[in-house]
Design a protein that fits this description.
The protein is mainly α. It has seven helices and no strands. The chain is elongated, with a radius of gyration of 42 Å.
C-alpha cells in the first residue's frame, strides 16, 4: 500500500478509492473515558456543603488566632486597671501632654490633675484616664502594674 501511495504521489495522482479495502480495515478502538466520580466513594458535594466546609474551617482558624474566650466579659473586667469606673455621658477627655519618663514626674502629675479638675471629686475616674497621659516606657510600666498597686 505504501508503495502504491509513493508511486501515485510521484505522478501527482490520487490512489483509486476502494470501498472494500476501507471497510476491511479494523477501526481503532474508541478511547476509554474514565469518570473518577463514578465510584460510590467519590460522591460529589453540593456547593452549599463546600461553602459550609470552608466557613467551618475559617471559623476554626479565627478561633485559633484570637484564642478561646478572648472577649469573655469576666476576663475583660479583670483586665481593667480601675474596676467599676463610671464615665459621665457629657465627660470629654482632655488632651494631655504625654509623659515618656524623661520629664519631671511631679510637673506631669500637676499638669494632669489641673486638666482633670472637672472630675476631681471622682478618684476612680482620675486614675482611669491617667494612662492616656502616658506613652512609651512609662505607659508600659503603668499597664503592667497590679490593680492593687494602682
Amino acid at each position: 500500500m505504501a508503495q502504491l501511495e509513493e508511486t501515485m504521489s510521484e505522478h501527482r495522482q490520487k490512489p483509486p478509492h476502494n470501498p472494500a479495502f476501507v471497510h476491511s480495515m479494523p477501526s481503532a478502538p474508541a478511547p476509554a473515558v474514565i469518570n473518577p466520580f463514578a465510584n460510590e466513594s467519590h460522591k460529589t458535594k453540593s456547593s452549599n456543603d463546600i461553602d459550609q466546609d470552608k466557613m467551618t474551617t475559617l471559623e476554626a482558624r479565627i478561633r485559633a488566632i484570637k484564642g478561646v474566650d478572648l472577649y469573655d466579659p469576666v476576663q475583660a473586667a479583670g483586665m481593667c486597671l480601675v474596676p467599676n469606673v463610671v464615665v459621665p455621658k457629657k465627660f470629654c477627655v482632655p488632651e494631655f501632654i504625654k509623659y515618656t519618663g524623661t520629664q519631671c514626674p511631679m510637673t506631669h502629675l500637676k499638669s494632669y490633675c489641673n486638666k482633670m479638675e472637672k472630675v476631681a471629686h471622682d478618684e476612680k475616674l482620675i486614675i482611669h484616664f491617667f494612662q492616656d497621659s502616658l506613652s512609651g516606657a512609662a505607659l508600659t510600666w503603668y499597664i503592667r502594674l497590679d490593680n492593687i498597686k494602682i
